[in-house]
Design goal:
The protein is built from six helices and 14 strands. By secondary structure, it is of the alpha+beta class. The structure holds fe (ii) ion. The site of fe (ii) ion has 4 residues, from loops.
């Protein structure tokens, strides 16, 4: 039997790309077999030229736009999309992954209470929640260190952004900000720290608080509750590359289509990190 292929053009308008693939494969069984791992200290073994990228990000914000987070009022969370969904138009190339205006009426606590994985009315093709739809890299050719780092990924890059927390931030309350994102079998999340200090940490509800330093490339266990915290009132800036890669799918840009790779249903994405299958160390 020919290997299945999933062109974007065949995704029904009422489904996300992932839900379409799930509906036509044994994806859920495969993902369930690999659920439940918690490895908060797993890192990508790469050299990140954080200082060079820090300067390039400043230029990219200036050249391509520096966008505030659209989901919640206030401007301290901001950044620039790394990928985009062409269906959403040129106006959303830079800010399409910086939240969504429809969540703007929620206060911070309510915003994090929305389980966006389950927000079914918006689990449709081309929406903000259609993770695999954000399948095209923005053009970072004018930023060589960043472009080189992105080229090193051996897997397709999806839903990714550069994110900066800056300005006067209040200390995080203990109960606010906890949330879940995609399972690592869907989207493997790497946080690459460009700048940060001890004012900030990544926390797991049932695990450690982790302070990242420039150059760190940490795997985030996005299927368990986590959050970013401001530990002290801060005037410093925290800038990360928030990279999501598809561990189990290939993406053919010419055909605008996905297919299963050899790792699908066979290797946990965290083991792919260890085996060097996620990034060619640069
Ligand atoms: Fe998250």
């Amino acid at each position: 039997m020919a290997a299945p292929i999933f062109p974007y053009a065949e995704v029904p308008a009422a489904m996300t790309v992932l839900d379409h693939i799930r509906a036509h494969s044994d994806w859920d069984e495969a993902a369930a077999r690999f659920a439940g791992r918690f490895e908060p200290d797993l890192r990508l073994d790469i050299k990140v030229p954080a200082e060079a990228i820090r300067r390039e990000v400043a230029r990219a914000y200036r050249d391509l736009g520096w966008h505030r987070w659209r989901s919640t009022p206030g401007g301290s969370y901001s950044g620039l999309a790394i990928t985009h969904n062409p269906e959403r138009g040129a106006a959303e190339r830079g800010n399409g992954l910086l939240g969504h205006e429809r969540y703007r009426d929620c206060d911070t606590q309510d915003y994090f209470a929305v389980d966006r994985q389950m927000d079914t009315q918006y689990r449709v093709r081309g929406d903000y929640l259609d993770t695999l739809g954000f399948r095209r890299l923005n053009d970072f050719s004018a930023y060589p260190a960043l472009a080189h780092l992105l080229r090193g990924f051996g897997r397709p890059i999806s839903r990714s952004r550069i994110a900066s927390l800056f300005g006067v931030s209040e200390t995080s309350r203990p109960d606010v900000g906890w949330h879940l994102d995609e399972a690592p079998t869907t989207l493997l999340r790497l946080n690459i720290c460009i700048e940060a200090d001890s004012d900030y940490a990544l926390e797991y509800r049932e695990g450690p608080a982790i302070q990242l330093a420039p150059g760190d490339a940490l795997v985030i266990n996005t299927d368990v509750e986590h959050r970013v915290t401001v530990r002290h009132p801060s005037i410093s800036t925290r800038t990360h590359l928030v990279i999501g890669v598809l561990p189990w799918l290939d993406y053919d840009a010419d055909r605008d289509a996905w297919s299963f790779n050899d790792c699908y249903g066979r290797i946990h994405p965290y083991d792919m990190v260890r085996e060097g299958l996620i990034h060619a160390a640069v």
